[in-house]
Amino acid sequence: MPQKLTLKKIAQDLKVSISTVSKALRDSHEISVETRDKIKDYAKKYNYKPNNIALSLKNQKTKKIGVIIPEIVHHFFATVISGIEKVANDKGYQVIICLSGESFDKEVVNMDMLANGSIDGFIMSLSKETLERQDYHHLREVLNQGMPIVMFDRAVEGIPCDKIIIDDVAAAQSATEFLLRKGKSKLAIISTVDYVNVGRLRTQGFKEALLKRGIEVSDKDVLKIEDTENSTTIIENFLKDTDYDGIIAVNELFAVTASKALQKLGKSIPDDASIIAFTDGMLSKYASPTLTTIGQKGEDMGGLAAAKLIERLEAPQTIEESYETVIVKTSLVERESTP
Amino acid sequence: MPQKLTLKKIAQDLKVSISTVSKALRDSHEISVETRDKIKDYAKKYNYKPNNIALSLKNQKTKKIGVIIPEIVHHFFATVISGIEKVANDKGYQVIICLSGESFDKEVVNMDMLANGSIDGFIMSLSKETLERQDYHHLREVLNQGMPIVMFDRAVEGIPCDKIIIDDVAAAQSATEFLLRKGKSKLAIISTVDYVNVGRLRTQGFKEALLKRGIEVSDKDVLKIEDTENSTTIIENFLKDTDYDGIIAVNELFAVTASKALQKLGKSIPDDASIIAFTDGMLSKYASPTLTTIGQKGEDMGGLAAAKLIERLEAPQTIEESYETVIVKTSLVERESTP
């Protein structure tokens, strides 16, 4: 049985990156003419066919939606999928999920696979590596061929597509103000590295709220975690020998880890230190004490993303293009970790 | 643009169930000749094409694996997916995930969609509704056409395919014996309804371990939860006015709920009552007290399932058929909820 030639296979055979193959086949000027020709000749020789989306779209709709997310262990993404499934199924669409595993190459390969006639459009949240590289050629390619994309949560500027996001800056601001109103004054934020835009924006909101109240913010009050595997040790070391009385964490895993670390240090929650987490998931509900959270409304976001994509798929074609960014309102869910 | 005729659409148009359409198109004797003819005529008229798996397999491999799972909110399924992704990616396969949402119809529809040339083989865990109906025609159909399936966790007897399971009876027995050795004697199990085989088998192991020690087991010591949405209230009511000193729960959500309910009743854990949960996930690690669990090795199970499927996909065809059931060893992860 002949094996189908894939982007990955071409990359391996020619010892170049998947991204290079993907771009060369689309005549990207980022790739030298020499390399482009080499890759295109190879692809032609072995009969590789890049996406024929425009063609397949003209002929027939698949009534399928492709979803590409970084991972499914985070409760947030699981709730988004639930929201997508509900709306999509109601409207007669099936949902196919692929994981990028936070890898740029996997995102490119999965997108290429699904765009190849399997689905009508994408709902996606970008991988950390894609955000770090700021390489979005795979999104542009799919869009250029007339296949719509809706981005959610980890969305970026400058891509012509609809987006479903929360106002991360405002949400972090209001969480910070909430802690200040409760009498807390020595605050810290546990965040991600800056290229993960939601982490950067939440940190920005935290700083802005403090500055507005005339409270100085030092870089040492911001913990940026890259190595999530070792987040427990990193958070424990960060909190040791500090007197923070309020912590905001950009996800519930960091929040519950901080809560345990503070309790281990003999602090009582919420009296000695209060905690607010982004993402209202299982961990927050079942932690002891239960955690006050900023509900990201994952199910709502998923439902809105699916509705938006289907609306675009079923709309008559227009010459003008306009894209919408929907900002989903967050809400503070008060529990035991704040007074 | 013409819309592709699907199983679901035919079912809606003819006002019959998806299962009836699926069976009729495969000439099942469960469906009357009259209904079969009606459905087949309609499908023919509108040019519906059922799976052409055998044909597509002969021509070309897709190097893709289809995974159908009931849901992704449970940590266990998320870890299985991680294991599948790792092994599959290593061997050059891509993974496509679809959710049944515990619905028989969605399982049938998703399987039909993926089997239609998108993938080479399936890894799946059955929906609750499929287990309740004991209707496996969609599995048999795919297998008959030469496409392999590997079932994991929620697997059933009598389907000619490889299975990756844990020994639920033995695991529950050893958890029960562990509690007895720790001096606990008034034990209860929080389980699912019987048609979910893992719940039934774990309950069986619990009862057998007690009987072996000459301890009588009453039905009132077994809580079978069907309505998971309201599990908190159900578990609180179950534990009220009892003096159980040991609880085994078939998943970590039930276990952490029981832990909270017991603490609310003024009981100290592990002294007044000890708890053991199936599934070693996030909730167990972050609960207070942390929970002793039976590690189900989700990642190992996923990896084994992927390896088994790929082995079968890449093996030369043989005339004999033999299928393997791999039993993954569980292990007790001791934490604070047991002495």
Tags for this model:
homodimer; 339 residues; alpha/beta; 434 Repressor (Amino-terminal Domain); Rossmann fold; 3 domains; six-stranded parallel β-sheet; 12 strands; Peripla_BP_I (chains A, B); transcription cis-regulatory region binding (chains A, B); LacI family transcriptional regulator (chains A, B)
Structure commentary:
2 copies of one chain form a homodimer. With 339 residues, chain A is an alpha/beta fold. Chain A folds into 3 domains: 1-48, lambda repressor-like DNA-binding domains (434 Repressor (Amino-terminal Domain)), CATH 1.10.260; 52-164 and 301-327, Rossmann fold, CATH 3.40.50.2300; 168-295, 3-Layer(aba) Sandwich (Rossmann fold), CATH 3.40.50. The first copy, chain A, has 14 helices and 12 strands. Chain A has helices at 7-14, 18-25, 33-45, 53-59, 75-90, 104-115, 128-133, 137-144, 168-181, 197-212, 231-239, 252-264, 282-286, 298-314; strands at 64-69, 94-99, 121-124, 149-152, 162-166, 187-192, 222-225, 246-249, 274-278, 292-295, 325-328, 331-333. In chain A, the strands form 2 sheets. In chain A, strands 2-1-3-4-5-11 form a 6-stranded parallel β-sheet, with helices on both faces. In chain A, strands 7-6-8-9-10-12 form a 6-stranded mixed β-sheet, sandwiched between helices. In chain A, strand 6 (187-192), helix 10 (197-212) and strand 7 (222-225) form a beta-alpha-beta unit. Chain A is elongated. The termini of chain A are far apart. In chain A, 51% of the residues are buried. At the A-B interface, helix 5, strand 2, helix 6, helix 12 and helix 13 of A face helix 4, helix 5, strand 2, helix 6 and helix 12 of B.
